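Request: Show me your protein:
***
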Amino acid sequence: MDKMPQPDGLPFMKMHGAGNDFVVIDSRGRAGALVTPALALALGDRNRGVGFDQLAEIRDGVDGADFTLDFWNSDGSRAGACGNATRCVSDYVMRGLGQDSVTLTTARGGLSAVRLTDGRVSVNMGAPQRDWQAVPLAHEVDLMHLPLPRDPVAVGMGNPHCVLFVEDAEAVDVAGLGPRYEHDPLFPERTNVEFVSVIGPDRLRMRVWERGAGITLACGSGACATAVAAHLRGLTGRRVVLDLDGGVLEVDWRSDGVWMTGPVAHVFDGWLTPAFLAAHP
């Protein structure tokens, strides 16, 4: 086949980690960020745009890091962290650099990622935020026992998380309950909501409602928050396996941070047309 000409517009990648899907825009070498709330909202529309759980924009690294990542939700709001997107983008950057490890900067600060011999990627998501102001919450409460129905746990992992331990995660009405917790006044920046049941020694079943995105097949920062909450509640050790709707993630809460490991997939590349970009500045 003749080589197709490169179209005008903005290139993007579609990736997913355990079914948690992303649009990725690489704006390294450009002056400033490209993504705006309007563009993120339009791209997140699965009928009129591309569709994603989160959008990740790769920008030039700072302070010696290999790259910087910014995150957006599908409703056009900013996300503070996205562990699965971080793993996917880290794999892409590692391949480009010919390395098996990278450092990066997000709103969480400096992070690091490595590729394992089996192709999976691990990212150190940093230490959990266990102070009410850091999560953040609206006022001081016991983070291990929030004054909300079903006795949830609050954990910050760059995003706020509300973790509920239930008898059977499969039976939970995630679509009905998720928005109630997301918008509870206790969470001034809204919250991700995890519904979790113990299904074996150091093994958890987790379903998730993400702020700004709704039900997703997986959530990396949510898996980290869930593992931390489960250990603090005495339900598991510090290393756990989580079964999510889209696949399996492993979390290891170490002395240097919470490491999250799972699969990565680069699905396709595409181009945003000049007309689409002009309509959503």
Summary: The mean pLDDT is 96. The two ends are 36 Å apart (CA to CA). The first helix runs from residue 37 to 44. Helices lie at 37-44, 83-97, 174-182, 220-232, 274-279.
